[in-house]
Amino acid sequence: MNFKQLLILITILCSLLPAIPLEAGEYYTLEEYIILHPGEKLLEESFNKLVKKNIVERLDKQFSPKIAVVCPGKQISDYWRRSCRSLESRIKQYGIIPRIHRFFIKPTAPLGKQSAVFHKALETNPDYLIFTLDASRHQRMIESILVAGKPKVILQNITTPLKIWEGKQPFMYVGFDHAQGTQMLAKYFARKTGGHGKYAVFLPDPGHLNKERGGTFISYMDKYTSLKLAAVFRTGIDKEKARLAALKIAEHHPDIKFIYACSTDIALGAIEGLREKGLLNRIMVNGWGGGSPEIDAIKKGELEVTVMRINDDNGVAMADAIILDMLGKNSQIPLVFSGRFEILDKRVNAKRLQRLQQESFRYSGN
């Protein structure tokens, strides 16, 4: 079967597969997956040690992997763009020159547009396809690749394997566990408020991110605190919608303690709206990810706290997995890589902030 025939097959399969909703019960948590696959824990620990190394051995090989990256990089958050830079920089450190095709889209792009870009990426005939998974249509597109068996799929920004794919999982899941990061923020706000008062939540569009970041936070507050949820706004990953939602908060719920924001763009929009109403010193806002725009807001004292990803772990993990695969060392690659987090608030001292930035952006630069 040539590539053109493969692409036609994928398109047909994608149109025939039913839309399966991505409910929380469809995923294994990291803990659940490791219990079912105990060997994964040892693989994960060994692989994490490789990712943390800043210097790797250059290879005496002539590889040139073809990589297609499709991601929602057209947003304020620099996570996706840094992931691409760190991926490329790490591969080159091995002495390998990759051929990378990048396809950046808006996180709010219609699924039809996302599907079209997905197929453009496939037309590059990559060895590895880096994509994400946040909606049922994404699942359908990915399943068609899994059925075809080529290219190898790396799912970025998700660390919870799908149960329905057991036995035919993608090459790798890579990211920072949404539930873990969310619980760190929930514990912070629980301590900061003493567990009392009211709060609001600004959510992305329905999907995996909405459930893992939004649903996890609300569940934690209901279970472990007396904080009351005063309002929920579905802003999408859209700064302007978040700004408008913050203006409504100022009008109807000016007595809340904080706004829980599920992404960078949402957080910066909320800050802008509260600033307009003079409420930034009364209502706290969190970030999610700790990229450069959030760090700037932390320094200004406008962002109360963020859960900071050691960002470049993400791109490095993808690069190292690709290198191991090309070397025929697949047995050393875990199915899931979940990067490290640090809680960072606006009272952070300059020395610690500088250290975290250097570690987080060690390949993607400033």
Structure in words:
- The chain has 13 helices and twelve strands.
- The chain is an alpha/beta fold.
- Helix 8 links the parallel strand 6 and strand 7.
- The longest helix has 17 residues.
- The N and C termini lie far apart (45 Å).
Key words describing this protein structure:
single chain; 366 residues; alpha/beta; 4-stranded parallel β-sheet
Q: What's the topology here?
A:
Elements: H1 3-16, H2 30-36, H3 39-52, E1 66-71, H4 79-93, E2 99-104, H5 111-122, E3 128-132, H6 136-148, E4 152-156, E5 172-175, H7 178-193, E6 198-203, H8 208-224, E7 228-234, H9 239-252, E8 258-261, H10 264-276, E9 284-285, H11 292-300, E10 305-309, H12 313-326, E11 336-338, E12 341-345, H13 350-360
Parallel strand pairs: 1-2, 1-3, 3-4, 4-5, 5-11, 6-7, 6-8, 8-9
Antiparallel strand pairs: 10-12
Radius of gyration (Å): 21 Å
Low-confidence segments, ≥5 residues, pLDDT <50?
1-22
Q: How would you state the average pLDDT, rounded?
A: 90
Helix/strand/pairing category: alpha/beta
Number of strands: 12
